[in-house]
Amino acid sequence: MQNPAVEYDYTVAKWFSYLAILFGILGMGVGVLIAFQLAFPELNYIFGQYSLFSRLRPIHTNVVAYGFTLSGIWATWYYVGQRVLKVSLKESPFLSGLAKVHFWLYFVTALLAVVSLLFRVTTSKEYAQFEWPLDILVVVIWVMWGISIFGLIGLRREKTLYISMWYYIATFLGVAMLYLFNNMAVPTYLVTGMGDPLHSVSMYAGSNDALVQWWFGHNAVAFVFTVPIIAMIYYFLPKESGQPVYSYKLSLLSFWGLMFVYLWAGGHHLIYSTVPDWMQTMGSIFSVILILPSWGSALNMLLTMKGEWSQLKDSPLIKFMVLASTFYMLSTLEGPIQSIKSVNALAHFTDWIPGHVHDGTLGWVGFMIIAAIMHMAPRFFKREIYSKKLLEAQFWLQTTGIVLYFSSMWIAGITQGMMWRAVDQYGNLAYSFIDTVTVLHPYYTLRAIGGLMYFIGLFMWAYNFYKTMTAARQIEEEPKFASPMAA
Amino acid sequence: MELKEIQGYLYFFFILFLTAILYGYIVHLYRSEKKGERDYEKYGKMALDDELDSKPVEPLDENDVNEKRSGK
Amino acid sequence: MFGWLEKNPFFFAVGVFVVIAFAGLIEIIPDFAQASRPLVGTKPYSVLELAGRQVYIKDSCNACHSQLIRPFKSETDRYGMYSLTGEYAYDRPFLWGSKRTGPDLHRVGNYRTSDWHANHMWDPTSVVPGSIMPAYKHMFTNVTDLETAFAEALTVKKVFNVPYDKDIDGDGKIDVVLGDSPADFEAAKQRALQEALVIAKETKREDLVNMVKEGKIPEIVALIAYLNRLK
Description:
The complex is a heterotrimer of chains A (487), B (72) and C (231).
Chain A: H1 11-39, E1 46-49, H2 53-85, H3 93-118, H4 132-154, H5 163-182, E2 185-187, H6 188-192, E3 200-202, H7 206-241, H8 248-262, H9 277-289, H10 291-304, H11 310-314, H12 316-339, H13 341-347, H14 352-381, H15 388-421, H16 433-438, H17 441-470
Antiparallel strand pairs in A: 2-3
Helix pairs in contact in A: 1-2, 1-3, 1-14, 1-17, 2-3, 2-7, 2-14, 3-4, 4-5, 5-7, 5-8, 7-12, 7-14, 8-10, 9-12, 10-12, 12-14, 12-15, 14-15, 14-17, 15-17
Chain B: H1 3-34, H2 45-48, H3 62-71
Chain C: H1 2-7, H2 9-27, H3 32-35, H4 47-58, H5 73-79, H6 114-122, H7 124-127, H8 146-160, H9 185-202, H10 206-213, H11 219-229
Helix pairs in contact in C: 4-8, 4-11, 6-11, 9-10, 9-11
């Protein structure tokens, strides 16, 4: 078959990669700062009221989830999408133009979002803090991505959609549904004609609002931190290692399993709350069932390396991806454990929860995006990766950082949970609340140091990427499998 | 019947239905491979051989492609 | 059938959507009417309390404080009666939080006073040695946006039928006075100022009292009004 375009169009994939690095450094930089604030509260005042913990925490979560991760997702979408459909964006001026508008609108919205949070414009719903004008922009951006996905599919040369495509489509649909329903709100200015035009009031009240919020909150994790990252690993791990997916059939089964089960698990955020018992139980049960499809995907990834484990030693990129799937297994086991009612009674509201979130996000999401972008870099710039040694050093530094992070948070969470419920011989509470805070100081310090190590790793990544772009040795043609790197 | 009751029945039957579909899907996957109708594992190659000029694992019909492209 | 689905992206997408939407349909929609029913006697927030609630949201107090007491002895001993769904009927949005870096606040109005809050928000370690909470001094100078609070109250009254200007407890008197249009704002402001003056005096801080007397309510006063209401 004759293809009119000679090569794939990486322009927008490149732009989103730059943005992923930028937002990664920004979001995790804020994360490191607020981690140190918990150990050393004086750090709250370095920029007056703009550096207070409560102001910065939403900025940290939003920039990391919707800045770093979404940029990573779109960087890979504009790369993987073309390749597995075997169609270049250059073949459609409309779609390549749309991709650029998508990028710029997203960039502007992201900046507006950060500024709005810094100036206290927030709805307070976790991971859905943006006020209604921003929500509308988000919807527009999302629709653009939808057009991009289905437009490219319309032009494809490959009849069957590769498994990664399934996951990208599911990301698109899932987030669209969740975001729309959770952000339903009535702008007060439009009703009354007075007050702050940015202010809105939620369509749902009390327990209902909580239910919708955690149906959203949990599944935003599913469809931003899990589903699209699986899309990435199903492409990048086989491609980098030169091994096809271990079992394509298993990947299909896990897909449907994950789609069905994940949505039910949101109730585990509300165990022992005022939502009906049966929903809590349902959340708990389905969270445990969720282990099956999650491990199905994870094992499939690991088994893809069967017979080729020597690559793990040779390639830092394979290291990143294999450890990412391992962390995926770890956090998809840890999550269900925390959803068991009696464990949840202890763990809920403690630092074990942020600990769990971070072994998923730092280990699984972060590592996968880092590996994906470093895999794409030689293809973007027709150059080798600048330094293998630096990449190796980054891997070990960040891995140590994650281990410090989650182990200190495990101890902190369980300690605090036990102290909250401890009683003396007469049945009175043994500790006042502040006792359970001061005891955490060493663990908060360790956690912050772990985060700092990961953060330093990001700079090594950014430097390596920059040097790959500008100074590494040029290569004749696009590498087929393993990405070439200079020692 | 109360809404709750309807909801309970709906839930039960939909779960049964989806379980049946899931198992049906597993059977389908293996049977169609055994009968030689389709080799699912070959789709794994889509990630490995993904140059613009590589031969698609399963090309669209030539007519289909032309139709779509002239439409755009 | 399955092979066909894999090659038809549109119907494939529909299939995915049905599978993921199912949980929402079953889990969320049916319980809506019941859970939004207020506990008997629960009154909507006054304009000043609502303004304080907006301050609570603006500075993301819910990032570190929960408002949900679970039904365990260790929690009821520490914070009071466990939370009931009807108590949240006027909470838009809900503020349960997900992390207790600081203690639960759902019944903080039962055991803390206005001047304790004022001291605490000015310098947390002065009343809780070892506290890692930062001070929120800007709340002592920022002026509360009463207009937006009034707009919110009016919106929920109109759109969600929240019972403002009604006799809720059956004693023959209107419980929370609001009004029907933006023209009633001035009267609402005067009521809020009266409420605020009481709280400002309780804090024993001259500067807060003076601000209220000048017709400006500092954010901290509105916030304390809200926290005192949490019982």
